[in-house]
């Protein structure tokens, strides 16, 4: 568990199942995220919790803000040899979007990645229409590397993914 002010990052538990089901089935948030679909059942969420609880190549946490689970954040596909990992964040409660929580949580995960996991590079992909997320990533030091054209299929259309990353030396300049 990691705590900073009103934010607690903690592992998911079975008792979080119903709240996670609501968050992961949020239509507004879902349309902005690449890997998500709608219609997660309780059993889907249970399997998700168990999978991530037993996955050794990631650091995944629920975002608990003032006692309310509002999403999750993680470093995935951690490659200790190449010293890189993929970053992703999901705030699934609309009432917490745009309040700076995503920025604080993202900075905290960068700190974990660079200072505790000794990573050299953290990367992400974001749908090119997710302007709020792109603005957030730019503000905390991520740089665009390129565009994967028509790389995601969602809502019966192909979407471009922007690939972004931040290197340890870039992170060290902004902390």
Description:
- With 175 residues, the protein is α+β, with helices and mostly antiparallel strands.
- It has one domain: Aminopeptidase, CATH 3.40.630.30.
- It is built from six helices and eight strands.
- It has an eight-stranded mixed sheet, sandwiched between helices.
- The two termini are 22 Å apart.
Q: Main attributes?
A:
8-stranded mixed β-sheet; globular; 37% strand; Aminopeptidase; 175 residues; alpha+beta; single chain
Might you state the CATH topology name? Aminopeptidase
Largest sheet: 8 strands, mixed
Shape: globular
* Number of extended strands: 8
Q: What kind of assembly state do the chains in view correspond to? A: single chain
Radius of gyration: 16 Å
Low-confidence stretches at least 5 residues in length (pLDDT < 50)?
none
Write the layout of secondary structure elements.
Elements lengths: L1 E3 L2 E4 L6 H8 L2 H4 L11 H12 L5 E7 L2 E12 L4 E8 L9 H16 L4 E7 L3 H9 L3 E12 L2 E11 H7 L1
Parallel strand pairs: 5-6
Antiparallel strand pairs: 1-2, 2-3, 3-4, 4-5, 6-8, 7-8
Helix pairs in contact: 1-3
Short description:
This protein has 175 residues and is α+β, with helices and mostly antiparallel strands. It has six helices and eight strands; from the N terminus they run ββαααβββαβαββα.
């Amino acid at each position: 568990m990691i705590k900073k002010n009103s934010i607690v990052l903690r592992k998911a538990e079975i008792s979080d199942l119903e709240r996670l089901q609501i968050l992961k089935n949020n239509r507004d948030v879902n349309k902005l995220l690449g890997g998500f679909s709608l219609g997660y059942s309780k059993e889907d969420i249970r399997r998700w919790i168990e999978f991530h609880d037993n996955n050794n190549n990631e650091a995944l946490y629920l975002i608990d803000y003032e006692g309310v689970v509002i999403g999750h954040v993680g470093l995935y596909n951690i490659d200790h040899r190449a010293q890189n990992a993929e970053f992703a964040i999901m705030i699934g409660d609309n009432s917490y979007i745009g309040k700076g929580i995503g920025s604080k949580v993202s900075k905290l995960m960068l700190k974990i990645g660079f200072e505790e996991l000794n990573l050299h590079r953290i990367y992400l992909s974001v749908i090119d229409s997710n302007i709020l997320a792109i603005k957030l990533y730019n503000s905390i030091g991520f740089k665009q590397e390129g565009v994967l054209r028509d790389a995601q299929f969602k809502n019966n259309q192909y979407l471009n993914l922007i690939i972004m990353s931040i290197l340890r030396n870039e992170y060290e300049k902004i902390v």
